[in-house]
Amino acid sequence: MEYMNQGKVIFNAFKDTLTGDLPKNESDYPKWFKDRYDKCLSCEYNIDNMDTESLDFISKAQKVTFNKGACSICHCFVKQKAWTKTEACGIEKTGAYPLWNRHEIVTRDKDPFNLVNLSYGFVNIGIEDTKESFVIDFGSKNMHNIPDINLQLISKNGVVVNSDNLIFYGDFDFGVSQKTNGTITDITINTKSVFGEVKEGFNVSVFSIPYNYMDKEYEIMFKIIYDHATN
Predict the structure, then answer these.
(1) How far is CA 76 from CA 14, 24, 34, 91, 113, in A?
(2) 22 C-beta neighbours (distance < 10 Å), count
(3) Contact 136, 223 (CB under 8 A)
(4) How distant, in Å, are the alpha carbons of 54, 145, 199, 205 from that of 175?
(5) For 199, how many CA atoms within 13 A lie in the half-sphere containing its CB?
(6) Distance from the Cα of residue 32 to its chain's centroid
(7) pLDDT at residue 230 above 70?
(8) DSSP β-bridge partners for residue 115
(9) Which of 82, 159, 86 is nearest to 127 (CA)?
(10) d(CA 217, CA 195)
(11) What was the pLDDT predicted at 231?
(12) Do 37 and 125 belong together in one domain?
């Protein structure tokens, strides 16, 4: 399982810029975009906020040639980056928790599922480096401040999810439930159930949802990550 090709992501972002789907006037910005973009504009890693001599070759070229904000970590132009729902803040590439989270994961055409993050204000989603599971990352937030987490698993390529059949592994049970309707599986994580379960430090829980493809049974894996060390 892999992210959609990055070239296609970049193409779509600049296509939206040219067609006007990405608003030019701040008064027309949707709230989710404005929240992201404002964080990028004030970020210490935005090349507009950095001394030119401290930049690497690519960032220097961007600053001199284009004269527009770009991230010195991922080298994306911040306006197009913030507009792209399949992207998370570039700080994620350093291993730190992002300043803003991914709204959705669109996988390659051959993969069985996409994932929509309806709770992007509270958790980040991604694909594990092994490409074997989705990741749901809570970071090190105070769990008392987080409502239930809602995701949507979108089936592709004729995949059929086996309704109401979850398998749990790992350190703790987040009170995960699911409900499937056609190609959409709603996943809810009851965060209140975690308080008596998590240990001090780094917690990992894994669950899977069985599915059927071409008369064969498979499982799609989800890894929940929560760092309890700073709470």
Answers:
(1) 11, 18, 17, 12, 26
(2) 19
(3) yes
(4) 47, 17, 16, 11
(5) 8
(6) 14
(7) no
(8) 105, 153
(9) 86
(10) 34
(11) 43
(12) no
Q: How confident is the model at residue 228, as a pLDDT? A: 66
Average pLDDT, rounded, for the chain = 90
The model's pLDDT over 34-80, given as tens digits with 9 standing for 90+, comes to: 999 999 999 999 999 999 999 999 999 999 898 789 999 999 999 99
Q: Which residues of 177-216 are buried (b: 16+ CB within 10 A; e: fewer)?
A: ebebeebebebbbebeebeeebeeeebebebbbebeeeee
DSSP state of 186: E
Same domain, 174 and 119: yes
96 located within any domain: no
Which of 54, 84, 114 lies at the terminal end of a domain, its last residue? Answer: 84
Nearest Cα to Cα of residue 84 among 68, 71, 72: 71
**% the chain with pLDDT above 90:** 72
Instruction: Output the six-digit token pair for 174.
Output: 């987040």
Please give the single-letter amino acid code of residue 192.
Answer: K
Q: Give the domain-ending residue among 37, 59, 84.
A: 84
